[in-house]
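Posted in: Structural Biology > Protein-Ligand Complexes

Title: Requesting predicted complex, protoporphyrin IX containing FE in pocket

I'd be grateful if someone could produce the 3D structure tokens for the following input. Sequence and ligand are given below.
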Amino acid sequence: MSADTKQKFSKLTVILHWTVALIIIGLLVVGTYMEENEVYSLYDIHKSIGILIFAIILIRVIWRLKNGFPKPLGKAKAWEVTLSKIVHWVLLIGTILFPISGMMLSGLGGHGLPLFGMELVAPNYVDGQAVPINADLAKLGHQMHGALAKIMILAIILHVAGALKHVFVYKDGTLRRMLGGKIEAD
Ligand code: HEM
Ligand code: HEM
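-- Reply #1 --
Done. Output follows.
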């Protein structure tokens, strides 16, 4: 698998970025909606997709650490480049902690871990009530999951604003490169 260059990203980088990006945004929307409106029918599908995407996230993070981060393009100012690097780290770490905290709150909370109909961890119900396997860790997972929702929404807004600034203000190939295009750069 060829590595990323300044002019062109590898197919793996592009596929992993957009797969993880779209699924994370989808799970953020579904998670917030189902929790606020208590739509319990959506919980199993939210958990299953979250566990599945965890495997893809791990591949993505290993690939990124092995391959290094993209070289910045265009006329972005030094503080913008620094901010973009911080946001990339927040996004990467957030994508790892989201599924881990979700599995903690569900599995250790006694609600079970379903994966598309299979039971990875069985629910621990007594008289119809979930009994936590480890109440402290389940609570920590719950708090992390809720805090991550806020942090990641902010990080994604900054990230997309940065991408749009490259398109409309700096008019360089930053977005085109992440869409798989070959661009001119020295
Ligand atoms: C639809 C919205 C999104 C757009 C338009 C977008 C666009 C981009 C672009 C253009 C780059 C390349 C930056 C560069 O060359 O310096 C990039 C990199 C990156 N994006 Fe996004 N992105 C989006 C959503 C997301 C989401 C939701 C996540 C994470 C949950 C994410 C995580 C990352 C990371 C970690 C990088 C660093 C490079 C890498 O690891 O491949 N992006 N994004
Ligand atoms: C991988 C990416 C994931 C994202 C982006 C995500 C996102 C979210 C969000 C935004 C919420 C609403 C939180 C709030 O408003 O306070 C939520 C709730 C929830 N998530 Fe996730 N989640 C992910 C993975 C998982 C996984 C893997 C599980 C379990 C296996 C899980 C289980 C839950 C549960 C049970 C709730 C509802 C909690 C409650 O009703 O109190 N999530 N998720």
